[in-house]
């Protein structure tokens, strides 16, 4: 049975949306006020806030409010579990393709020997 990690599921769900990925890219440069994150999207502020809530629930960002300004900050450590899972999957598939390549090479050698 496959391992189930609800945090990993939340992260992949959060990353599935291009708007949220664009927001994360912007946050990769440092903390950004919500209004600055909203501006390039063309979305209404409540919609932007829902996107940010998904990112925060997944643990990808944190936010803090000072006065009337809410500032978001990326939490890159949250991506470590994702990177680990992807590395495992890559290793599994590379091993499978290596075995397939070896099998095909063996079949070709056998065919040449006939």
Arithmetic mean pLDDT: 91
Oligomer class:
single chain
CA distance, first residue to last residue? 43 Å
Coarse structural class: alpha+beta
CATH fold-level label: Arc Repressor Mutant, subunit A
**SSE string:** HHEHHEEH
Widest sheet: strand ordering: 1-3-2
Radius of gyration: 22 Å
- CATH classification, class level: Mainly Alpha
What's the count of strands?
3
- CATH architectural arrangement: Orthogonal Bundle
Number of spatially distinct domains: 1
Strand content: 5-15%
Tertiary shape: elongated
Our count of helices gives: 5
Flag low-confidence runs: none
Describe it:
- This protein has a single domain (6-113), classed as Arc Repressor Mutant, subunit A, CATH 1.10.10.10.
- It has five helices and three strands.
- Strand 2 (61-66) and strand 3 form a beta hairpin.
- The protein has helices at 6-15, 18-27, 34-38, 45-57, 80-113; strands at 32-33, 61-66, 69-74.
- By secondary structure, it is α+β, with helices and mostly antiparallel strands.
- Helix 1 packs antiparallel against helix 4 (45-57).
Keywords:
single chain, 114 residues, three-stranded antiparallel beta sheet, 3 strands, Arc Repressor Mutant, subunit A, 12% strand, alpha+beta, elongated
In short:
By secondary structure, the protein is of the alpha+beta class. The protein contains 5 helices and 3 strands.
């Amino acid at each position: 049975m496959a391992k189930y990690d609800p945090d990993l599921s939340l992260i992949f769900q959060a990353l599935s949306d291009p708007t949220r990925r664009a927001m994360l890219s912007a946050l990769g440069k440092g903390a950004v006020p919500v209004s600055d994150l909203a501006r390039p999207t063309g979305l209404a502020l409540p919609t932007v806030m829902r996107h940010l809530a998904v990112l925060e629930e997944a643990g990808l960002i944190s936010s803090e409010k000072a006065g009337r300004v809410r500032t978001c900050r990326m939490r890159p450590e949250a991506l470590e579990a994702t990177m680990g899972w992807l590395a495992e999957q890559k290793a599994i598939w590379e091993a499978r393709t290596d075995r397939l390549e070896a099998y095909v090479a063996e079949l070709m050698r056998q065919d040449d020997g006939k």
